[in-house]
């Protein structure tokens, strides 16, 4: 670090920053909300089901560190909802956004030949179009935050949550994998385009994580089949276990910190070694 650069405390600090995290009522998104808020970030989040959000808000308000989290019910696959979400975040967060985390996502399991036009359109809108459009909508707010002084250590951040399915192929996940592979490349493209704006864009690609994603995606699965799928996956994971949402949230949080001020355009796998296994 330059002689007059930020101190160690400043490099590992997020207090006073603001963030919009999509899909914060469950799983990885909820862990990201709680981790960022725990570091003193004012977080606005969203999910489709308002009852789940209200339950989260009730729990968060009972915890001093998380009490300032706010939320809006919104379906990120719908253009108008995305516009309303960013407007609500802008109002709640005082017109400034330091961090955007595009986390909300869904999946389905189907052979490519069985995918309908509706299946394809829904997943593209939920996982990929939302990521692009929310980044577009957030850009003026991220720009305002990044140009408010403080040099490289005050860069604002976009973090996308893709998946190792964007790198390795799984039968029945062709559309999901396509959305995640595109998110990986979108990360690199936006990082190159927005470096001049002092906005860093990175991506975390999780392997299998213990969440409710099949239920949230409306998939009804025989528990025995689900168990076999997990066992087959774990046999290929050197660490032989699923990840926990908090293990993804900590990587996201690091990428948002001034400590990561020279990291942009990267897709970082948090996967227990799955993508490096023979
Ligand atoms: N779990 C894994 O093994 C795994 C692995 C790799 C990547 N990922 C990625 O990680 C991200 C989070 O997944 P997760 O496993 O944490 O899933 P999850 O437990 O199902 O949580 C998803 C969150 O996103 C919200 N959400 C879903 N669709 C939405 C929509 N259209 N609009 C607004 N909010 C929406 C959900 O709330 P509502 O249902 O109320 O909308 C929920 O809060 C996804 O992008 C997923 O692809 C997960």
Automatic annotation (TrEMBL):
Residue ranges constituting the Ketoreductase domain according to the UniProt record: 17-167
Coiled-coil annotated spans: none
Keyword Oxidoreductase appears in the UniProt entry: yes
UniProt KW keywords: NADP, Oxidoreductase
Matching Gene3D superfamilies: NAD(P)-binding Rossmann-like Domain (3.40.50.720)
Pfam (any one): adh_short_C2
InterPro entries linked: KR_dom, NAD(P)-bd_dom_sf, Sc_DH/Rdtase_CS, SDR_fam, TR
GO MF annotations in UniProt: oxidoreductase activity
NCBIfam families documented for this protein: PRK07231.1
Protein known as: Ketoreductase domain-containing protein
Organism name: Eleusine coracana subsp. coracana
Gene: gb03866
